């Protein structure tokens, strides 16, 4: 074939440009530490690296969420520990009140202390985190969960639990609704609570409780109309009995009412109770002892109520603790997974420096050889020999 001077020049230039480009690519690999500069360098590895980078980013967000969850649960656990101490203190005061030698003035002093404990309990139930969100209001983080006084407290939140995605398959509850902590104090099977309910303005209370048969867990509402205590079935609304008191007998329940209720004041009987209502009944009994049965029955119910309240708080606290243990495990797994992702990405993307530097040196040699050979070939033209 005939080789023209133009072909010689064009081929030489193309060769030098190609070798320069290859050397530049290798130089970029060395300077960036990456084997893949563009997806075209290795399409399969590039696609896999993109998937792994996304997974690594999601895992990093999960690790951040785990930190947030641990902070939130730690705060809840701290508040529950304070509630536990407060319940134990109140129980101790109830035991002291049961001392038959105490004078009315001493009982009122205990009542004053229990009132202060009530306020502390209410403050704990309305605890907030650093962002001003209420811990025990369920999903309604901006809604104060408990509103009221010693005359009665009502729950304004809901039954939800706020959650965070702490792993690909785990939505971690980071809060507990107040209804599960303070409102759901459970009595032993076959027993019941009898307490005032919000809002009561009088001094009426349950001075004594007694079983007259097998209690099956029926809930009753009791309301004072100024003459009689009207008892209704809380589930069906059906009237049960209307009695003037102070002794009320219905179903398998017998109550001794104490104090002086206002018209419209309400009481409830059931297998569950609100811890705040237990405080109300205890204070009312200490401040206005029943002239017929005294305070022993109310004190006994207060002690039992504090025991059941403590059981409920310990149950919730154990749940919080188990979630914190789970978070520790997830943190360890997430850390290991992050290392695994990094190692796989390194294997796919990172350059082999020994190989790259060796290639760079070889490519420099090729380029220099091409440049020198091109110069020599240029000198072979016959025009260079014309005089």
Automatic annotation (TrEMBL):
A biological process term (GO) from this entry: bacterial-type flagellum-dependent cell motility
Annotated localization: Bacterial flagellum; Secreted
Gene Ontology cellular component annotations, sorted alphabetically: bacterial-type flagellum hook; extracellular region
Name of one Pfam family that matches: flgK_1st_1
Residue ranges constituting the Flagellar hook-associated protein 1 D2-like domain according to the UniProt record: 214-271
Example of a GO MF term: structural molecule activity
Coiled coil: none
Residue stretches making up the Flagellin C-terminal domain: 304-386
Major location category of this protein: other
Keywords: Bacterial flagellum, Cell projection, Cilium, Flagellum
Flagellin N-terminal domain span: 3-140
Sequence similarity: Belongs to the bacterial flagellin family.
The protein's name: Flagellar hook-associated protein FlgL
Organism of this sequence: Denitromonas iodatirespirans
């Amino acid at each position: 074939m005939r080789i023209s001077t133009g072909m010689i020049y064009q081929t030489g230039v193309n060769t030098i440009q190609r070798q320069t480009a290859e050397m530049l690519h290798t130089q970029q690999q060395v300077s960036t530490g990456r084997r893949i500069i563009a997806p075209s360098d290795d399409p399969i590895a590039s696609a896999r690296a993109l998937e792994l980078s996304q997974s690594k980013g999601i895992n990093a967000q999960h690790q951040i969420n785990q930190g947030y969850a641990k902070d939130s649960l730690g705060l809840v656990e701290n508040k529950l520990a304070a509630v536990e101490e407060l319940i134990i203190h109140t129980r101790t005061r109830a035991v002291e009140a049961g001392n038959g030698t105490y004078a009315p003035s001493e009982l009122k002093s205990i009542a004053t202390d229990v009132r202060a404990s009530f306020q502390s309990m209410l403050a704990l139930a309305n605890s907030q985190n650093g962002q001003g969100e209420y811990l025990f209001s369920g999903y309604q983080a901006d809604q104060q969960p408990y509103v009221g006084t010693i005359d009665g407290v009502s729950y304004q939140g809901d039954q939800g639990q706020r959650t965070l995605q702490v792993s690909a398959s785990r939505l971690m509850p980071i809060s507990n609704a107040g209804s599960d902590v303070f409102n759901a104090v459970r009595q032993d099977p076959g027993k019941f609570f009898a307490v005032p309910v919000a809002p009561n303005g009088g001094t009426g209370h349950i001075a004594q409780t007694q079983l007259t048969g097998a209690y099956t867990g029926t809930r009753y509402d009791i309301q004072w109309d100024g003459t009689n205590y009207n008892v209704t079935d809380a589930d069906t609304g059906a009237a049960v009995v209307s009695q003037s008191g102070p002794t009320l007998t219905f179903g398998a329940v017998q109550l001794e009412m104490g104090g002086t209720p206002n018209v419209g004041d309400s009481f409830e009987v059931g297998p569950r109770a609100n811890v705040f209502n237990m405080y109300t009944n205890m204070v009312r009994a200490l401040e206005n002892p029943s002239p017929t049965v005294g305070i022993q029955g109310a004190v006994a119910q207060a002690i039992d109520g504090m025991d059941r309240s403590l059981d409920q708080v310990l149950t919730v606290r154990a749940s919080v603790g188990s979630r914190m243990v789970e978070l520790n495990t997830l943190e360890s797994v997430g850390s290991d997974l992050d290392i695994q992702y990094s190692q796989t990405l390194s294997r796919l993307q990172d350059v082999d420096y020994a190989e790259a530097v060796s290639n760079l040196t070889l490519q420099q040699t090729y380029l220099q050889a091409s440049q020198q050979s091109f110069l020599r070939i240029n000198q072979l033209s016959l025009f260079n020999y014309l005089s």
